[in-house]
Amino acid sequence: MNDLQPILGPDPALGLLAGFLxxxxxxxxxxxxxxxxRLPARRALGPAAAYxxxxxxLIIALASLLVLFTPGDSETGSAAxxxxxxxxxxxxxxxxxxxxxxxxxxxxxxxxxxxxAEVRAGRGGPAVVGLIAPRIVLPADxxxxxxxxxxxxxAHEREHVARKDPRAAAVVALFQCLCWFNPxxxxxxxxxxxxxxxxxxxxxxxHRPGTRVLYARTLLKAQLATTPLPFGCYWPARGQHPxxxxxxxxxxxxxxxxxxxxxxAVVLALMDAIRP
Length: 276
Known about the structure:
70% of the residues lie in helices and 3% in strands. The protein is mainly alpha-helical. The chain has 2 domains: 1-91, no CATH class; 116-276, no CATH class. The chain has a 3-stranded antiparallel β-sheet. Helix 6 packs antiparallel against helix 8 (165-178) and helix 9 (183-207) runs parallel beside helix 11. The longest helix is centred in the N-terminal third of the chain and has 34 residues, at 12-45. Residues 1-9, 73-79, 237-241 and 256-276 have low confidence and may be disordered.
């Protein structure tokens, strides 16, 4: 008990619960702040800057854990061991948390297996799968995409690999599993994935400014894929709003004079086609 009192107070069990809940509240507040700040940051500094803002919730979460598990005056590691000994005092809470975490891990694993099955059947992609050695999954070459569109897809996925986005997606999935009860964890995952895709879109069209309209058409085609991919990067397809945001981002760059009025008209037509 004495090992824990400098960290969690006189009641280690209640201190552990309060610290865990406090960390989730801090993360939720940070997620809300980033959710608001990402919009002006995207307009002023670009999608990549908005995407980097999502480091803030991760830093807050790690800082909260470090404060909670700092050994204080005890020997290194003794506080964590003593915490484990006091877990029964929390009643059914650890079991409920563990069951929810296992259930979400199972759901993510099942979704990942389904996606990989689609890939093996030639129906998966575009996406990047794999953490240690990421590989690009392209749609089947069945004539649906032109060679130019396939090259844009390949360029987009290469950006994901270069930025190590699959590893970021795995960290996000782990964060969701650990904080499965916190709705802000899932909100952060959704918005982060969208900002991740927008950052890659911006990188691709920055190096290929004449392909904005073709890129928008390619996005419209790719949104028909509906199999989710928890551990990897894919072009968000569940619902039309993320796609509209991405095409609207391309349109804003067109409005700045980087493409002609004909391209602007095509992008507007694409936006009208996907508007609810």
